[in-house]
Amino acid sequence: METIDLRPAYTIPRLLKGNWQIAEDHSDREFDVSELMEDLIAFAQAGMTTYVCGDIYVGVEAKLGRFRQLYKDRFGEEAASNVKVFTTYVPYFLEEENLRNHSYADVEKIVNRSLERLQQECIDLVQMHWWEWSIPGHVDMALYLQKLQQAGKIDKLAVTNYDVKHTKEILDAGVDLVSNTVQYSLTDRRPENGMVQLCLEHDMKLLCYGALGGGLFSDKWLGIPDPARPAFENVSLDKYYRIVCDFGGWGLFQRLLQTLKDIGAKHNVSIGNVAVRYILERDQVGAVIMGARHALHLKENLRVFDFSLDEGDYRKINGILAESTGPNGDIYSVDREENRDALEEPKTEYVDVEDGKLMQKSREPVTVSEPYGHHIAQSY
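The structure corresponding to this sequence follows.
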C-alpha cells in the first residue's frame, strides 16, 4: 500500500475507502450488519485504513463508529489508532433560508453529533461543502470549524467540491486546508483547470472520487449499447453517466474503455486498475477514494500498486482524451449550475447488464426522504 503525508506525521493510504455506497438509501440493497463490519475490517487489514463519509450519508457515521470500536476490541488500541475517518460537513442541504442564517451554534451542534455517532473525541478530518455560492457564509463556516479545531474537536480541515475562487477565500482567511476532495477521472479532468496549481501553491492534496465512474470503468460496460438515459441500478451510476455525456458521449467512452482494456492486458490488470492508476499518477493527487458496498473486489483494487503507466500507455489514452468535449469549467461547476444533486434518486424503471446484455428492469420504489435522493434529510 502506497501512503502519503497530508501534513508531517499525518499519513494516509493512497486508496481510501468511500462509504456513500453503504448509506441506507443509496440503493434498494439491505445490509447485514455483521457482514458489513467484516467487510470494513477487511479494508483496514489490507492497509486501506482511512474511511470517507458525510454527516448526511444516511446511517454511515454511526456504522463507522461501530466498526471502529469493533476494530479496537479485536486488534487493540495501537491498531485502531491507525484508522482515520474523514467526514464531510454539509450545512442545511437544499434548505436555503436555514443556510442564510447558518451560525456557530449550528456548526458546533452538527460536529458534536458527528463525534457522538463516530464514538470519537476528535474528528480526524472535516471536509467543508458549501452547496450554494449565491448565499454568503462559507468563510464564516470555515472559521467556525477552525474554532472547533482549536478547541480539540477536529484534527485537520479540508474542503470538498470547492472551486479555485472559493478555496482561495478560505485560505486567505487564514484557515489551513490539507486537501480538497474532488471528482477526478479520465472522463472528468476539471481539477486541471486551476485547482491543481492552487494545491501546489498551498501544500494541499487532491482526494479524488469518481475514478471508477461508479463502476462504469469495467469490463461489464465494454461493448454495451448506450443506455440513453441516467436510470441505472443506483444513483452513483446515474451521476457518472451524466459525466460520460459531458465527456463526449457513449461512443467515445466505449473507445476509451477498449483502450484501457488493451493497456490492462499488457500489464495483466483490469480496466478499473488502469483508470485508477492514471489518476494516482496525476500532479497533486494524494489518494483515490474507492467506493464499495463490500470487500469482494478488494484484492483486485489493490493491484493498482503493481504497475505504472508507461509512455506508450499515455500516448494511447491521451489520443482518446484529445477528442473529449468536457466537462468544462471549474470543480463541480456544471453540477451546481444544473442542480444535479437534486436529480439523484433511485428509479423504479432502470437498466443493468446481465450476461453481457443491457436489460430493462423494474422494482418497487426505493423509499428516500426529500429533497435529496441518497442523502436523507436530517433534523438539526
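The longest strand covers residues 154-160.
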